[in-house]
Amino acid sequence: MGGRLDPAVARVRLEVRAALTALTGAVPGGANTGASGGATGGLVLVGFSGGADSLALLAATCFEAPGTGLCAGAVIVDHGMQPGSADVAARAAAQAAGLGAAPVRVERVCVGTRGGPEAAARTVRHAALRRVADELGAQCVLLAHTRDDQAETVLLGLARGSGARSLAGMRPVTGRVRRPLLALTRAETRAACAAEHLSWWDDPHNADDAHARARVRHRLLPALEQELGPGIRDALARSADLLRADADALDALAAGLLETARAAPAGGLTGALSDAPGQWSESDVRLQVDVLVAAPAALRHRVLRSAAIAAGCPAGDLAAVHVVAVDRLLTAWHGQRGVDLPGKVRASRSGGSLRLAPRPVTG
Hints:
Rossmann fold, six-stranded mixed sheet, 12 helices
């Protein structure tokens, strides 16, 4: 006879089940058949590292997916940033297959340097996940970020000083990406793995103080808990939820401002506000000064940030100080020279037009 289901395992499975049923609209039956249920529906992929968070997520997904008519697969991204990474990836792939994941893919990537090692690794990792999802026709990709990760993200955003959007943390759903464990703690995912006798891998990079997130995790958050109380992680996550709702509303209003401010004779822009440069059709961005000056600063700054990214600024390198400098070309214009931005982009004003474009190459 089976014993009582461990509370941590139950919590992880419940969150995963909610995410999968929201995806399919299915109503699971009373008895879940587990990973051997033989589901023949669509595919969901789990970004899997072998760490406790992603291991708990993958185990729960392999258990819950058949009950919602889905199949669970796994993608392991080998960043090649430390000795033995190929062996770690191979072990993770074997563990994923043992849990019932199929297909299991290992993707080796080359990490660049733009934005620092953490940002560069994240960029290529997400690109690899999107690529595999496209190749396999997956309905979604599940990532194992927890409430602890959300709190760390908010603090890192605060340190960058990039405004409400950076403080809004990670979205539960972004396109095909879903994060079903944002309501859970890292302690709960570890407890779930331990209860199911699953051994996880601890990435040494997560303990390396050379990385900003590691310093936040091991130094800053414990210090805040000591001084402010153990509820600081929950408070930061709640703040992210509130700020995300506010930022979404302001972004929607800013999208309308963008359409009004767009300078049609220059070819201008198409598409909605986004941190992804690919959402824009042109890198030469021209906006009407009078329209922007008449708008509230909160909306104007959003338009300027999106325009700068459209012109080629890396989103991770564009800080609030850059946006404010461009804004002075609108609100404190005295004929001054333009503003040089990250990514070799230049903002300049000519009469009633603001232009953001790649800097010309000089011989």
